[in-house]
Amino acid sequence: MKLYLKIWRQKDANSKGKMVDYTMEGIEGDMSFLEMLDVLNEDLITKGEEPIEFDHDCREGICGTCSLQINGRPHGPDTRITVCQLHMRRFNDGDTIVIEPFRARAFPVIKDLIIDRNAFERIQQAGGYVSVNTSGNTVDANAIPIEKEMADKSFNAATCIGCGACVAACKNASAMLFTSAKVSQFALLPQGRVEASDRVRSMVRQMDLEGFGNCTNTGACEVECPKGISLENIARMNREYLSATAKG
Amino acid sequence: MSALLKSSIARKVVMALSGLFLVIFLILHVTINLASVIDPETFNVWSHFMGYNVLVQFLMQPILIAGVIVHFAMGFALEIQNKRARSVNYVKFKGSENAPWVSRNMILSGAVILAFLGLHFYDFWIHEMTYKYVEANPADPTRYYEETVAKFEPMWRTVLYVISFVLLSLHLWHGFASSFQSMGVNNKYTPGITKFTKIYAVVIPLAFIFIALYHHLNPVMH
Description:
By secondary structure, chain A is an alpha+beta fold. Chain A is about 35% helix and about 10% strand. Chain A has 2 domains: about 5-110, Ubiquitin-like (UB roll) (Roll), CATH 3.10.20.30; about 120-245, Fumarate Reductase Iron-sulfur Protein, Chain B, domain 2, CATH 1.10.1060. Chain A is elongated, with a radius of gyration of 20 Å. In chain B, α2 packs across α3 (about 40-50) and α2 crosses α4 (about 55-85). Chain B is globular and about 60 Å long. The chains are: A alpha+beta, B mainly alpha.
């Protein structure tokens, strides 16, 4: 398969980037998208050129680091997958593929296709946890009965891998789906209810401070989320926030 | 309060509440307008009541104008913030693959509706204010029907009104149901709300279009 690639190259955070064209031949359909980039990098290194920096870790769809916008969509043309789960058989011989980093003011580019997603970490640190006494008298979480529906919803919210596809897909670069998943996974459980009001206030405040945009309910985030996190979580966070604010 | 309004969620709730208020107002507006098609006399009576009742004029009217201003001002403020949230744009961005056109272009449909409101206020509100308070004309409870029909005589105005109502329909198509999501309502009633939104977004603007065209082609008056 012969492919024409247009890839964002940027020396460092302070430099201005640009799209650079590459032509690749002999690409097999069974290669993953990241393997295709590995091959391209081997070629570049052989030629003595600077390889393209891109994030990757687990290569099995759970780490969420492969933050690439491929042909205008986060993680490429398919839904419910990350880039490492995207295979070259999804493309045709002669295709042009545009590869860019996820774009948001809160996700500055570090180099080439690598972005800084610490904004998500700071939102998580603002309240995305449950304070538990670990002095030896900790109550076993499984000793508290939780109805199945709540447990399932909480688990579904907790499957968010923090990849940032929601922000990348949103026309407003809003982080509401990510933040709401992290709020919901605790808000739905009795262990998380204790700190629910402080949590939602702190996490929303941090989300706003990071400079993400506002949610306009387009639903793009839900479509592009590799884990299928539902918009229900955003509505839940809105409820939690309004109720926490009313309590003062 | 100002600290609360700096929160993205609170701002969205303000958008949702002001939007829902305007959605409810549209029912009142279209009901009165429909009277102009069914029974001109009733239209005159209702219009005169709306124009001279103290509560309507000095309580409801300012609240309505405030609602309009809040909805538009907040809408544009949020849009500016949203644009800032992506300082470098994508070379390729396929928004149509994951979100409907109406939801991605609320600012466009909103701006057209705002421009329309400028014309609409000039046509009716400024005219009324001038008639009553500047020229201080005596109350005439029979003038409204003829004035309304006369407004729709020119083709250009009718066309502009019809285009604006189409954009209003698109705005409501997303905005009505979206306001419930912004206020935290996403439950077993959501499919019903979405269905009702689609019916509302078609029926109300279509009624306004029908009224404008009816008066443009009014067989009795022209």
